[in-house]
Amino acid sequence: MENNTNKTNEPQKNKKNGKRNLIILILMFLLLVCLFIVQCQLNKVKQQAIEDQKLSELAIRQKQVLDSLRLVEQAKKDSLDAIEKARIADSLRIADSLRVADSLRTADSLRIADSLANLKPVNKDSLRAARDSIRAARKARKDSLARVADSLAKSEKAKQDSLNKLRQADSLRNSDKVPPTAEITPPAGRYYSPIKLKVKCDEIKCKTFISIGDTLNPQDASKGIDYNKTGSVFFYAADSVGNRTAWEEAKYDMASDNVCGKNAFPVPVGGRTVCVDAYEYPNQPDAAPKDMVSQEEAANICKKEGKHLCSIEEWQAACRGKDGFKYSYGNSYKQSKCNTNTKAAKRSGRKTQCRSWYGMYDMNGNLWEWTSSTSKQHPDKFLVAGGAWNTNNESRCTESKFSFYPQNQYPSVGFRCCK
């Protein structure tokens, strides 16, 4: 009997166990679903955190880049040359003024907008006027920003131009190693009245200096220095890139014993004193020297003036000076000193450096000059001396020719008188 009861209860018990197991499986499934949902949410949260971190890192990198750009811009501004500081300051003041004006306009526009937002609509005209005011404010802001940008662009261009000029100056300074040429005027020699000394330079931007007696006290020579003493004067010139000449010496003899009168000066010749005209005939400064004149005519003109046509000895003594130079200005040929490399004669005295020690001008070049001396090889021919406008370094004080007949006239031959 008991066995039958057990057999009857066993299927019921198994049925209950099956239901319990099913419930457990359902609960486990639901738990897995919940875990899956939680895991998905966790993954989303994790992904969001990763994205937030990336955005944060990107923001940090952007900030670093901006900081670097600011540092570069600041370094660029700090390296600007002092020459442009004033101009940049002006541009910045303009920009600040425009920004202030823009800020005021923007503030006005915002106040208008706030007022419109707080007001109730009244009518279309009021709204239209408010919109026009906002448009005008925006246009003014846009125009002010354009002006600021234009001002900054001009400032940047000015800075760049200044830097380019500095680079060009540096390039010129590095490439130009040749010193200028300096010459003192009036040139060394004997004078009978006070003179004003100046130093000329063959370059435009050039500074010149003079020191009286020695080289210890240089002074600016561009405006002229009054001088009236016998002695040495030293001078030099410096160009715009720092090249300078060596000290040069000019010796002066300030005399007061001119016994020859106007435009003539005494010259010692063989133990006697001869008055030699300072200029080629007609012996006037800045006059056109007379050419196309025969030797006979030249001698007659000098005779009518109570003088005589200079002999070769007198002429050469006047040209060579007290030191016996090859040229009136020295022993080496210098093309710029006298008119020896052109196509025509110049007016008397125009070449101020072409002056002999005793005061005679244009004895080298300009015109050949008749003398009263005949050639030893050709007694029927008279000597001419000094060279002409195109004889270059052959225009020496010792240069003479004898192939000139006394009755002939030549476009390159003139004369001067002695007494």
Explain what you see.
- The structure is a single chain.
- The chain has five helices and 16 strands.
- 24% of the residues are buried.
- It is 43% helix and 17% strand.
- The chain is rod-shaped and about 180 Å long.
- It folds into three domains: 82-175; 182-254, Immunoglobulin-like; 258-419, paralog of FGE (formylglycine-generating enzyme) (Alpha-Beta Complex), CATH 3.90.1580.
- The chain has helices at residues 2-78, 85-118, 124-175, 295-304, 312-320; strands at residues 182-185, 189-191, 195-201, 206-212, 219-220, 225-227, 231-239, 248-254, 264-269, 272-277, 308-309, 368-374, 382-385, 400-401, 413-414, 417-418.
- It is α+β, with helices and mostly antiparallel strands.
- A hairpin with a 7-residue loop joins strand 12 and strand 13 (382-385).
- Helix 2 (85-118) runs antiparallel to helix 3.
- It has a five-stranded mixed beta sheet, with no helix packed on it.
